Amino acid sequence: MIKIAVVEDDELLKKYIKEYLQANHYTVFLIDEFGDVLTQIEEIQPDLILLDINLPQYDGFFYTKILRKRLTTPLIILSARSDESEQIRGITQGADDYITKPFSMGILLAKIEAVLRRVTPQTTQLAIDALVLNCDKMVLSYLGEVLELSKNEFKLMKLFMQSPHTVITREELLTELWDDGHFVDDNTLSVNMTRLKLKLKSLQIVDAFVTKRGVGYVFTPPMAK
Fold first, then answer.
1. I want to staple 175 with a disulfide (CB 3.0 to 4.6 A). Which of 40, 67, 80, 110 is the partner?
2. Confidence (pTM)
3. Higher pLDDT residue, 189 or 48?
4. How far apart are CA 145 and CA 199, in angstroms?
């Protein structure tokens, strides 16, 4: 299971982050001793670090520079400092992303998953029973039938196949569709989900998506008989 270290001095926020990420199948370690952050992180060997900027003794920028000299672990800064200059500073010092407070847990999860995807070697194929997604060609096949997917259909299908039987929030899906800084609205997501459902129907796959009203979707893969 993926391990995430949280360096944050807001006790309530830490509690929410831990509960939410654990509910999404991550192992979470809270750093409580701020005089020895680096040693604790090296002992935990996390797969990703969430790092607040406003910390006792030394700020997050200090730790970002030191961590980057010692580790290649993905790092996301959490900060109430929303100025563009602060965000640029964090990224140029080695952070993989910068999230300004306040933020929703859904956005945090989407950012974490996006960073982990970037640093994880990409598989060329995802398969669940007879359903196969070829990531190089952006084609989906099922029981000998093959169809091409659009760029957005492929992005959505890949996300669903990476997390079957799990609620994928609309925020996560919108983040996945976000491309080259162009805003993606909720209607765009709905249109692409409708097209994806029609593509699956052409493969004789129906009712694979369950809509969680106001939250997102759950993908239940078909099982070949």
1. 110
2. 0.57
3. 48
4. 11
